[in-house]
Amino acid sequence: MFSKETYPFRLPELPYAYHALEPFIDQRTMYFHHDKHLKTYIDNLNKALEAYPEYQTRTLEELLTRLPELPEELRTPVRNNGGGVYNHEMYFHLMAPAGQPFSTEVAEAFGGEDNWKRQMKAAALGQFGSGFVWLVRDTTGAMKIIALPNQDNPLTIGLQPILPLDVWEHAYYLKHQNLRSDYIDDWFHVINWNAVEQRLNDTL
Ligand code: MN3
Fold it and tell me: pTM for the whole thing?
């Protein structure tokens, strides 16, 4: 699992073909998003950790969970690029070719599929500028939806990430241009609900 990896971080393969999420997320977007954007976060995270051997043995998950422990000059690059690596690897892993049935556990927690989608979409449209919307578990085990700016990760504020929705423009601009709302509707079709349920079990 990517969150258990340590320095030096490497670009993983996409778990499906670049065109596998068509027509909802297009092949070109997937290529640039994975091979260029994620690769840049990985390179910059490795560069930041190069001079800090004492932190190279920490997993990505530990780096983000224990972010305040890092020296100040390392904290911001790990927050931005370590977050960028974690958030994107999870985002790609939690998409799959369209057709998986909606999670019954999520439906129960949010009063049905439509309510969950409405809340995710409201949070995603309400996130000004770049960021991610997250389905998370809090310390009581309850599921919540939150929006975080930039590449901030729920682990840093004591929440368990379950499912990320990338709302940076680079996630949708090539196909949807400025229409974030259409991108969100399309993303709903390609959620890897099997993997979501796996994470829900793992975080209990
Ligand atoms: Mn992105």
Answer: 0.96
